[in-house]
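step=encode ok
step=design start
structure_in=
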């Protein structure tokens, strides 16, 4: 999942970025509140982590502008301001959660995951699609109760598909999710990852979960979905089976 970190203190930003990446999040950082608003207008984030004390505009203004622009991305305020009025003002502006510094890394990760689940319409850390069960906290996948071993990239793709089940995801969306615009490989790499993921799912009895919507991208469907759901691709080109290090 992709997080926008808005933090003017570069040391704090570096430490927090490392914490989030260790938990398998993709992180974009900006020290500017103005830039944060523009990034939210142009990119699809799963969460914003925001410091209220910024060099250009206050964090409250970032929240206010985002909500006025009808940007519904959940916003977690992580600030050195501890007075009750700061929290009241942040929630009144449209923040979804508030934590104060210093913070516990485990609690921050747990709250971030909870906010992202709720924003996607899920309340539990375990999601199920047919026989497949995905544990968002533990980053584990089981099929028919048996563990499914995935690479980091394969898990990230599957997680995104499950969280946005029923929505068609383009290859650009997957690249953005996996690499965050940094050193992105060619788009066909997504076909390779999808091919490998399908093979692993098929091997454990969970075939036809990932459907191809030709010319658009991929979609996650339930095994018990209606018969008029998109028809899955029966086979990708042989070149998609080329081994790629995830």
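sequence_out=
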């Amino acid at each position: 999942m992709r997080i926008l970190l808005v933090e003017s203190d570069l040391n704090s930003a570096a430490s927090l970025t490392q914490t989030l990446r260790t938990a398998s999040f993709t992180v974009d950082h900006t020290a500017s509140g103005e830039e944060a608003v523009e990034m939210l207008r142009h990119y699809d984030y799963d969460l914003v982590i925001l410091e209220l004390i910024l060099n250009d505009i206050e964090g409250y203004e970032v929240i206010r502008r985002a909500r006025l622009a009808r940007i519904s991305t959940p916003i977690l305020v992580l600030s050195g301001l501890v007075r009750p009025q700061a929290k009241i003002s942040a929630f009144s502006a449209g923040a979804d959660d508030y934590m104060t510094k210093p913070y516990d890394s485990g609690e921050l990760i747990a709250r971030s995951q909870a906010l992202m689940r709720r924003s996607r319409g899920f309340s539990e850390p375990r999601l199920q699609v047919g026989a497949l069960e995905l544990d968002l906290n533990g980053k584990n996948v089981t099929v028919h109760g048996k563990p499914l071993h995935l690479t980091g990239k394969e898990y990230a793709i599957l997680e995104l598909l499950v969280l946005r089940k029923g929505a068609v995801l383009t290859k650009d969306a997957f690249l953005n999710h996996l690499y965050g615009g940094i050193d992105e490989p060619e788009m066909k790499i997504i076909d390779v990852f999808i091919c490998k993921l399908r093979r692993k799912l098929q091997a454990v009895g969970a075939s036809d979960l990932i459907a191809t919507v030709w010319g658009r991208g991929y979609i996650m469907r339930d095994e018990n979905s209606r018969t008029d759901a998109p028809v899955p691709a029966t086979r990708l080109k042989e070149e998609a089976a080329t081994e790629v290090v995830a």
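step=design ok
step=annotate ok -> The chain has two domains: 2-120, 126-220.
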